[in-house]
Write a structure and sequence with these properties.
The complex is a heterodimer of chains A (336) and B (319). By secondary structure, chain A is mainly alpha-helical. In chain A, 69% of the residues lie in helices and 0% in strands. Chain B has a single domain, classed as MetI-like fold (Orthogonal Bundle).
């Protein structure tokens, strides 16, 4: 390359850029033509809708044009001034953040610990366990959510039936350990009224769903650690914990951190569990931004408000992405 | 990422083989082995518990609406629930085959379309340097950040506006209330994902081959068709499969847009079996249906998950 371009590098590279531009646009044309119509235009249209009082009556082709209401939808959505049962913007955002954070922390810790367990030299049947532990990942999330919804049913769910068995075993009355997992109104932890029992049911289901993939990522990273490091540390008299702390964790961090951030965003937007298990209840306490956005469109049919809500959601996600990216870069440089 | 970890890992295996004497010394004692095996079995139990429960319920012959006990194999296990669900899973007059066909058409159509036109855009982003590249990439990334729910309202309204009504020949068509319309709505989110996922993969393909081809006088078009595309085939398959998985159980658009039972999909039927108004559905029917929906895709996913998970990690992390 260098020998060809050597004679007139300036003109060549400018020519190349122009040729690349023509080709680049050509290659992008089909995708951007399609996205222009079904992705970007709807988003622009949605932004316009968010400034109007669009409802079912304004549906084209027969509906009349909606009225322009300025920032009214935004103000009402943000200040909880909507005539919708159990809507509270601040509560949703606080719960949504806590939901994503608490899940990811549990997923990463469990994922790493189980990966370390399965990476133990000399452990038998490792391949069998690895194959079984991947099962939650391969099942469609909507199936996982609907099955766990039935599992946590108060009267017939497997969890309560199992607890009943445990109670009988412990010679307690059969209903001593029964929990109304998804609908209990009283707070399980006094003083933390933003975490209803349904949150813990969702947390259990999502833990089941979430740790295996973290374990896969951690296993990949674990297997890239040179074994000489452990042997050298062992010779130097490092304890098991010291080896884990000073060798395993530093090697895992660069692989786990980006994945944890990815998991955070995925969990933040996890629709199925909240929608199918708790239905956002009790009293909307386990509602997430995505499930609320869905309800605004499908149940309340307040398209204008729903559009404003979606725009707000976009900025929240943008903000989260920027923060997590910066966080990742900061931690990476510290790690180096 | 793979190229960086792959090489040392291979070297470690070589070292590991040559130092088998060392690893023999690392063997676990019997008590350690037992404790760790018990721990692994406990985890296995928690992983399998919901799955065994669903399968067990689906075999329950008593057609009771709710189970009252935990059994692994219910007395007189039978496949009655499966045959009931095969004929008509929910209260809507559609068979499992119709639902599965609709879901399959949506899933294959959107996945194939998104990957086919997505790979061209991915190549442009990965290999060509042109004006506006950054802006367009940010546009794709910005859309990718949004969950599909966020475009539900505008897509509903816009697809609903496409109406064909010719009374003379009895043609009445509303794009929103049709499978092609829902396909468009799904593609709206799937295409940016396909572009980004494929770009992430193309970025990992070393440039040596292309440079060699360029020295031999290959044009960019030839490079794309003869070098990049064949190398990217696994990534295309993985991305298409991930798209298929999404389409197979797509819920947001199918449940909101479609009103006619003959258009219903698996997710719509599932929703009507577990929703608030589904108290009449026996759990054994729901369980059989869940197994029938999950099994085909789960088996494929299970056998290809090694490739899929690594492909997802590359695309996802870079996004």
């Amino acid at each position: 390359m260098a020998t060809i371009a050597g004679a007139a590098p300036q003109r060549r590279s400018r020519f190349r850029i122009r040729a690349d531009t023509r080709m680049g646009l050509l290659y992008l044309l089909p995708a951007f033509l399609v996205m222009g119509i079904i992705t970007f235009y709807p988003l622009v249209y949605q932004t316009w809708m968010s400034f109007t009082d669009f409802t079912l009556e304004n549906l084209p082709p027969r509906g009349h044009d909606p009225n322009f209401v300025g920032l009214d939808n935004y103000v009402r959505a943000l200040t909880t001034d909507l005539n919708i049962p159990n809507y509270d913007f601040l509560r949703i955002i606080v719960f949504n953040l806590w939901w994503a954070l608490s899940n990811v922390v549990i997923h990463v810790i469990l994922g790493v610990l189980i990966a370390v367990l399965l990476n133990t030299q000399g452990l038998r049947f490792r391949k069998v366990y690895r194959a079984i532990y991947i099962l939650p990942v391969v099942i469609p999330p909507i199936i996982v959510a609907t099955v766990w919804a039935n599992m946590f049913d108060k009267d017939n769910g497997a969890i309560n039936l199992a607890l009943q068995g445990v109670a009988v075993l412990l010679r307690l009355p059969p209903d001593a350990l029964q929990v109304d997992w998804l609908r209990q109104v009283a707070d399980p932890i006094p003083g933390l009224s933003f975490l209803p029992m349904a949150y813990f049911a969702l947390l259990i289901a999502n833990t089941w769903l979430g740790w295996p993939l973290n374990s896969v990522v951690a296993t990949g990273a674990l297997q890239s650690i040179p074994r000489e490091l452990y042997e050298a540390a062992e010779i130097d008299g490092a304890s098991g914990w010291q080896r884990f702390r000073n060798i395993t964790i530093p090697y895992l961090r660069p692989a786990m951190l980006p994945y944890a951030i990815y998991g955070f965003v995925i969990t933040f937007n996890l629709f199925y569990l909240s929608y199918f298990m708790s239905g956002g209840g009790p009293f909307g306490k386990t509602e997430l931004l995505v499930t609320q956005a869905f309800r605004l469109v499908t149940e309340q049919r307040l398209y204008g408000v729903a559009a404003a809500f979606a725009v707000i959601m976009f900025f929240i996600l943008l903000f989260l992405t920027l923060i997590t990216n910066r966080l990742a870069r900061a931690t990476a440089s510290v790690a180096e | 990422m793979t190229t960086e970890t792959e090489l040392p890992r291979r070297r470690i295996f070589a070292i590991g083989r040559s130092m088998s004497a060392v690893s023999r010394r690392n063997r676990l004692s019997l008590s350690q082995q037992v404790v760790l095996q018990l721990l692994c079995l406990l985890i296995t139990f928690t992983v399998l518990f919901p799955l065994l429960w669903v399968v067990s319920m689906s075999l329950d012959p008593r057609n009771i609406s709710r189970p009252y006990e935990l059994t692994l194999i219910p007395p007189g296990a039978s496949l009655d629930a499966y045959s009931r669900v095969w004929n008509q899973p929910s209260a809507n007059p559609v068979s499992f085959l119709t639902l599965a066909r609709n879901s399959f058409l949506l899933a294959t159509g959107t996945a194939f379309f998104s990957v086919t036109i997505g790979v061209f855009a991915a190549f442009a982003f990965s290999r060509l340097r042109f004006r506006g590249r950054q802006v367009l990439m940010i546009a794709v990334l910005g859309v990718l950040m949004l969950p599909p729910v966020a475009t539900l309202a505008p897509l509903f309204i816009q697809l609903n506006a496409v109406n064909i009504d010719i009374p003379t020949i009895g043609l009445k068509f509303n794009l929103r209330n049709s499978l092609p319309g829902v396909g468009l709505a799904i593609t709206s989110g799937l295409l940016p994902f396909a572009i980004w996922n494929l770009k992430g993969y193309l970025d990992t393909i070393p440039r040596d081959l292309e440079e060699a081809a360029a020295v031999d006088g290959a044009t960019k078009n030839q490079t794309f068709l003869k070098i990049i595309l064949p190398l990217a085939l696994p990534a295309l398959a993985v991305t298409a499969f991930l798209g298929f998985l999404g389409g197979w159980t797509e819920f947001y658009f199918t449940s909101t847009f479609l009103n006619r039972p003959q258009d219903y999909t698996l997710a719509v039927a599932l929703n009507s079996m577990v929703g608030r108004y589904a108290t009449e559905t026996p759990w054994s029917d729901f369980a059989a249906f869940a197994v029938m929906v999950a099994l085909p895709v789960s088996v494929v996913y299970f056998f290809f998950q090694r490739y899929i998970v690594s492909g997802l990690a590359i695309g996802g992390v870079k996004g």
